[in-house]
Amino acid sequence: MSRLAEQEVAGDALGAPASGEEGPYDGLRIRALTKSFGSYTAVRSLDLDIPRGSFFALLGPSGCGKTTTLRMVAGLEQPTSGTITLAGEDITRTKPYRRPVNTVFQSYALFPHLDVAENVAFGLKRRKVKDVAAQVEAMLALVELETQASKKPAQLSGGQQQRVALARALINRPEVLLLDEPLGALDLKLRRSMQIEVKRIQTEVGLTFVHVTHDQEEAMTMADTVAVMNGGVVEQMGAPSELYENPRSTFVANFLGQSNLIEGTVRRRDADLVTVDMHGVTVSVPAHRVHTDGDRGWVGIRPEKVLIGEVGAELDAPGNTVPGGVITDVSFVGVSTQYLVRMPWGQELQVFAQNTGRQRMFAHGEQVELSWRPEYAFLLDASQDVAAGADRVVG
Amino acid sequence: MSVEAPAPPRTPGGGRADRPARRSRRPRGSVTGYLLLAPAGIFLLAFFVVPFYSLVATSLFDPSGSDFRGYEMTYAWGNYVDVVRDYWGPLLRAMAYGAAATAACLVLGYVLAYAIAFKAGRWKNLMLVLVIAPFFTSFLIRTLSWKLILADDGFVVNTLQVLQLLGDDGRLLATPFAVIAGLTYNFLPFMVLPLYASLDKLDPRLVEASSDLYANPVAGFFKVTWPLSLPGVVSGTLLTFIPATGDYINAELLGSTNNRVIGNVIQSQFTDANNYPVAAALSVLLSVLIVVMVLVYVRRAGTEELL
Amino acid sequence: MRWVRDNLVLLLGLAVLVYTFVPIAVVVLMSFNAPDSRLVYSFDGFTLDNWLNPCADPDLCSALGVSIRIGALATAGSTVLGTLAAFALVRHRFRGRSASNLLIFLPMATPEVVLGSSLLALFVASGLAGQLGFWTILIAHVMFCLSFVVVTVRARLAGMDDALEQAAMDLYATPAQTFWRVTFPLVLPGILAAALLSFSLSFDDFIVTNLNSGNTTTFPMYVWGVARVGIPMQVNVIGTLMFVLSIAVVIGVEVRNRRRQVPVA
Known about the structure:
CATH architecture of the domain at 88-301 in chain B: Orthogonal Bundle
Largest sheet of chain B: none
CATH topology of the domain at 88-301 in chain B: MetI-like fold
Distance between the termini of chain B: 21 Å
Shape of chain A: elongated
Oligomer: heterotrimer
Largest sheet of chain A: 6 strands, mixed
Strand content of chain A: 25-35%
Number of helices of chain B: 13
């Protein structure tokens, strides 16, 4: 399936009402799913379409409802209302041991009293499948653990345990494989290599993977579609690049990467361009990147899209130019230099300059001008919290 | 025997607070819960709660009755006045011996638990097993063994006499010292295990941090280790004090008739003198006193996490 | 000297440990003793007679038999009741849960002499004063072992990761299969530990038993009885055997655990 087609599906799903168009859909479909714990609503009327064979990530901070959603799909939690259908079949109230869905648990939940092979064979044996031994062997080969078959989970390293948990779920060839922050317990280096490994296995077996994580980098690396969740609802869904380049809310803008958000007033709306006054500086934003109908809004620009130059210098990127900046902090991080620039209206903007060698480094206290190409800017609704999602824990 | 056995129940683990899903899992019918609990619950009601009620009733019977003639319920509250008047000595003695033994257990037990938790390294489990092991041998046999060790012409007494630490006609057996030593010995594991459970949870880096912040080892111990081990100290002292106060085996085997404690009296009033109202009143009095002391102690120690 | 100072706490701890073994050493030694008289209790000569004729005093072995029978039955009863209750308390939410917890906790916090005299008061009030014996001892033992079983099994259950059972359900195990293939095997060590604890509590109890025994004599009561007239050396044989057996069980369990989970560095 092409990326484009997926984006369309994803785009449809977000805006789609729960009614009417419930045709035969071969993927995982969630409609108006709600889960309340007493007075606390963990998931609020969630709609999602997850195409068959895709690698889908639910991304959000702790407590955003992503794990609860996953557990409802697994059948480990009963929805308060709403439906879950899988390949056209309603599984909302199906017992967990009767749904063709398997989970890789955050803690792996390997059975400590069974060895690796017995753990992997567990699901097949419960379903009285024939030829278990051969399948277990093949599955252990896939995750490169053939030699560990008779060891107990406690004798394995974290990465090996993770692969056993993956094998134990995968061997059942579920319609949907759910991964609940499966890499969270691994150290950074191991996590990166496991990300590639899991992605490879997904491509090999071609199953639908639904991956829950709070690590935006992990979601973007692994998934072909990402849904950003916050406060029990999906804020935005789409391909990683789309989410990153054109966020629709301050939460997405801050949670995925970093953004400079500058207060502005809309001056003119043309068919393809919106003009905004930003503390006396006029900038423009393409109409398809404007996500507010109001008079006021947040002008957003990613730090690496901002160009920094000497006062009055000819600019590489003719477009929106903001004069009057003073450098207040310089951090050299190797591939790039990160500046903090204080603007005339008091706000400090972040600028990441690639160390291409074409431009000199600026020093603390220097006067500079900032600019960016209009096509990189976006405009968000003024009613949103400018700091939403900014305090995330970097995984 | 697993180490967690007589140790105080663990505090509820630090589950991730950001997961409401974890808290309210298992929405199971309560009927099954009642059915599972019923056998044990009914048994304890019948053979623990009802008997205590029966004990209180017995303590209020007319003291002039006898096993032979039967007893009459006369709400004879005077029984309590009588037993306090007649037996305040053994009652106070039991408390004093219990308290002294608990204090001694705390000192010895703390050293041992600390050594196991922080210094034993890979011998941790072995040492824990060794703490419990001697106590699988009969309580009575071990106590009789102490009787032999502390005997008048035994090795310990002779050595102390040679060193002039004990007079020529001095003795250890049949003294309060022997009774307290016996109690200390017998109830030591009840102190060590909860202390160990508390200390083992303590992150040694906290002590390192305190020394980094200019605390000398003594200050580090009293400002960090000791306060954090308080839950273990509280449950350990309770688990030691309660049985040690009720015990009369040590007083009987290692003490003299001057060292009789309340347990001796209750036992002999019940089975030898068949003086049920007096024995029951003593027994009720003992449990009330212990409950009051425990409540006061727990409140002062400020630890509610006992259950 | 420096080494001593660095390891002072460990050495003191070991000293305390050694102290706990002193009476055991005496018991083991005395089991090989050939005493000159029954009244003067000292080591007079080495013999294997005590080990070869453990039942020289038939009363000793019949008391031992009574204790073993009561211990086995009390263990079975308290382990079954206590395990069920532990499951109820950990796995179910119902009204009266905290009252139940208190009911379980109280017998452990009550002096034995009070437990024993309460039961005696009940038996006397029920007109069973003449019926005291095997069954009343058994009831008493189940009662005071019960709480220890609940606490032990409850700790094991509470320490179990919920995700394990969820994983089993997720992997097509029905509730019954989940229980027998995952939950039960994982709780079993706790249940066995509780049973071992129950047996040793029952086998060793004197104070509660003595109040409710009638004419039945358990092993601790036998020892108590002969303590005044001079102890047959065979008592030390039994003491040594108890020690060796329990050490063997504990070490066996430990070795099995070690073999099961060799930690990977």
